[in-house]
Task: inverse folding
């Protein structure tokens, strides 16, 4: 048997509607707050710290340097031909970690936005960078 709803007075009906609206509003605000926490949590995980940026730059060097046209000739010049796998990671760390550690947090955040000349200037200039590459390759000799 179906149970009949007890008849409500208009005041009771109005009070019931107000309470339903309040509950609905509270639920909406809880969802908004939960989404804000989630959004800020994801944003903080996406932003790179300076140390993470330096690690990413070194990783990029490890991935891309072997495809540089001069890489094999530089290895051959230092007697390291065919040793890319052994040499590449220590070489990239040597070339990049010291100059990147000298940059400020803002410089590191904006580093990828700079053109090549400005990047080289931040790293001490083209001549200093080439000299550091030569020193790092020479340090990799067995």
Result:
């Amino acid at each position: 048997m179906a149970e009949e709803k007890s008849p409500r007075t208009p005041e009771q009906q109005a009070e019931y509607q107000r309470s339903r609206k309040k509950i609905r509003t509270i639920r909406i605000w809880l969802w908004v707050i939960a989404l804000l926490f989630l959004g800020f949590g994801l944003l903080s995980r996406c932003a790179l710290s300076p140390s993470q940026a330096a690690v990413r730059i070194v990783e990029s060097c490890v991935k891309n340097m072997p495809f540089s046209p001069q890489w094999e000739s530089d290895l051959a010049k230092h007697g390291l031909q065919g040793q890319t796998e052994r040499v590449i990671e220590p070489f990239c760390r040597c070339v990049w970690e010291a100059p990147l550690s000298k940059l400020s947090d803002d410089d590191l955040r904006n580093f990828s936005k700079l053109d090549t000349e400005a990047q080289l200037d931040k790293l001490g200039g083209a001549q200093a960078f080439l000299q550091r590459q030569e020193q790092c390759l020479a340090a990799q000799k067995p």
